[in-house]
Amino acid sequence: MITIIDYNAGNVQSVIFALKRLGVEAVLTNDIETIQKAEKVIFPGVGEASTTMNYLRELGLDKVIPNLTQPVLGICLGMQLLCDYSEEGDTKCLGVFPQKVVKFEPKLKVPHVGWNTIFDLRKPVFNQELEKEYVYFVHSFYAELSEFTTAKTDYIQPFSAALQKDNFHAVQFHPEKSGTVGERIIQNFLEI
Fold first, then answer.
1. Most buried pick, 13, 25, 52, 85, via CB within 10 A?
2. What pLDDT score was predicted for residue 47?
């Protein structure tokens, strides 16, 4: 069973539709037991970090998510919340990835909205056929490059397009809105 964590994230329907296109049915829930028993968990997100973390705390999910042992895929805000800290709202996050999420300097248009290539890819979610492919981004904050970076992109400066640590995989872009490339990335996660 694939579970999508329901926590008022804005891109949930897009994720459900992307999974259906791949022939996969998912359960949308914030029930702790259902999430813990899932084969794989998707942690989507569109929203603001501090408000979202408050909501996760109210549901008790702030204690559950970092302790999941099955494969987890964080998307956009979901990726940022898996980090230690976000400058957005001066927010203590879930701490899976020991790094900060910082705001873009406004040298170019912020938020970063549009298609960018991903490069310097590492398995298991990425394979070499995805090198330099375009994916869709919408965000004003980003995770800096680190030892956990499994894909990079460049907007204003290079940053982490994806992170991975143990069973946690996360992408800053929206694979559910990135066409066939995004579908391949989701499929690679589902095959872990």
1. 52
2. 87
